[in-house]
């Protein structure tokens, strides 16, 4: 929370500069929880096609909560270590994913890509009927808007697909919309990589919980498994089942209606529902009274918001000035770090101090 507060308090508008376009930069955003062969494949495809470019991984950091609203298996400095060990040049801290709505996160993330002066954006996708046309429009620099049961080209207003999109494909479309909103020209910058099969996130999480990697050994790079084992043996992982239960329960029981209603992702109806059902004695009791919401991860994100106790006004202002700093979580060597500093459109590059 202190890092978020410091970034928030030190925000300013004069943090941008002219970057060096002679250095090419690949930027990928992913949670790496943990880094598996799907992530590794996307990284390798991008690096093979642009061997002279810096590969920068943007890893969600603050509050350590995932898009599922759950704690990460490993803290961000260890996730950065794994990324560097398998080929990333730089790892920077991304927006606080688990306490934001998907639109908020996508908007902040887009501003990070702009600040990084990004040249190539590799994204994994699932091939489905009709999606090729959407990818073609994005390659042309068109923002694509995901609306209920239809996908619309924001430039031509043409309906490209009358259906919902699976999660990975939805992320690409939503991201193009956010990039357009902030005025970032992404024409010909996306590198779409067809997702590989044979990787199961649920099986990987189960193997981590059991400290038994035999069934998933072919799903992750050896470096990931080695570092996971090291962290588990040192009693520093896994973290994905751990929360600050007392804080969540205390906030649910004691925050006023106005304080609850002002929390990010909350509204008056949700605040009143918590008031009507308290006192709570467990997180499960809070979880059970929550409505499902639009996202299947809405309930767990609400628990993370209660945990962090961050208001929607603070999140909105945080996004307005984001990124106030570029926080480097890991880097390959000093030469790479210097090239990175020359490349980006941002004055404030700091090294993470864990």
Overview of this protein structure:
By secondary structure, the chain is an alpha/beta fold. The chain has helices at 2-9, 37-49, 76-85, 102-115, 131-139, 167-181, 201-210, 222-233, 245-254, 257-261, 268-277, 283-289, 298-308, 312-320, 334-343, and strands at 25-29, 54-60, 90-94, 121-125, 144-147, 150-153, 159-161, 190-194, 326-331, 349-351. The strands form three sheets. It has a five-stranded mixed sheet with strand order 1-2-3-9-10. It has a three-stranded antiparallel sheet with strand order 5-6-7. Strands 4-8 form a two-stranded parallel ribbon. Helix 4 crosses helix 6 (167-181) and helix 9 packs across helix 13 (298-308). The chain is globular, with a radius of gyration of 20 Å.
Ranges with pLDDT <50 over ≥5 residues?
Answer: none
Radius of gyration: 20 Å
Element string (H = helix, E = strand): HEHEHEHEHEEEHEHHHHHHHHEHE
| Major β-sheet profile | 5 strands, mixed
The beta-strand count equals: 10
Helix content: 40-55%
Mean pLDDT: 94
Number of helices: 15
Note the overall shape. globular
What is the terminal-to-terminal distance?
A: 13 Å
SS-based class: alpha/beta
How much of the polypeptide forms β-strand, as a percent range? 5-15%
What strand line-up does the widest sheet have?
1-2-3-9-10
Layout of secondary structure:
Blueprint lengths: L1 H8 L15 E5 L7 H13 L4 E7 L15 H10 L4 E5 L7 H14 L5 E5 L5 H9 L4 E4 L2 E4 L5 E3 L5 H15 L8 E5 L6 H10 L11 H12 L11 H10 L2 H5 L6 H10 L5 H7 L8 H11 L3 H9 L5 E6 L2 H10 L5 E3 L3
Helix pairs in contact: 4-6, 9-13
């Amino acid at each position: 929370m202190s890092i978020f507060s410091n970034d928030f308090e030190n925000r300013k508008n004069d943090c941008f500069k002219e970057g060096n376009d002679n250095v090419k930069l690949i930027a990928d955003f992913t949670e790496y929880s943990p880094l598996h062969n799907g992530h590794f494949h996307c990284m390798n495809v991008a690096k093979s096609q642009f061997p002279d470019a810096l590969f920068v991984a943007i890893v969600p950091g603050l509050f350590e909560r995932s898009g599922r609203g759950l704690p990460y298996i490993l803290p961000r400095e260890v996730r950065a270590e794994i990324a560097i060990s398998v080929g990333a040049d730089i790892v920077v801290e991304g927006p606080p994913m688990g306490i934001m709505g998907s639109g908020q996160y996508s908007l902040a993330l887009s501003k990070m890509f702009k600040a990084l002066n990004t040249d190539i954006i590799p994204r994994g996708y699932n091939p489905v009927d009709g999606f090729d046309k959407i990818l073609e429009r994005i390659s042309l620099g068109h923002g694509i808007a995901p609306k209920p049961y239809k996908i619309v080209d924001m430039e031509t207003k043409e309906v490209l697909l009358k259906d919902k999109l699976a999660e990975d494909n939805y992320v690409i479309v939503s991201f193009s919309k956010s990039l357009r909103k902030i005025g970032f020209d992404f024409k010909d910058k996306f590198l779409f990589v067809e997702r590989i099969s044979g990787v199961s996130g649920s099986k990987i999480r189960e193997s981590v919980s059991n400290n038994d990697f035999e069934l998933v050994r072919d799903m992750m790079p050896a470096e990931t498994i080695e570092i996971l084992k090291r962290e588990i043996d040192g009693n520093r992982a896994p973290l994905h089942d751990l929360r600050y239960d007392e804080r969540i329960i205390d906030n649910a029981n004691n925050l006023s209606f106005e304080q609850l209603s002002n929390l990010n992702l909350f509204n008056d109806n949700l605040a009143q529902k918590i008031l009507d059902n308290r006192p709570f004695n467990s997180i499960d009791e809070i979880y059970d009274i929550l409505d499902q919401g639009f996202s299947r991860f809405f309930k767990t994100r609400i628990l993370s918001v209660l945990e962090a106790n961050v208001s929607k006004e603070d999140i909105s202002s945080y996004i307005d000035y984001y990124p106030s700093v570029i926080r480097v979580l890991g880097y390959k060597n000093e030469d790479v770090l210097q090239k990175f500093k020359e490349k980006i459109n941002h004055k404030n590059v700091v090294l993470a101090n864990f």
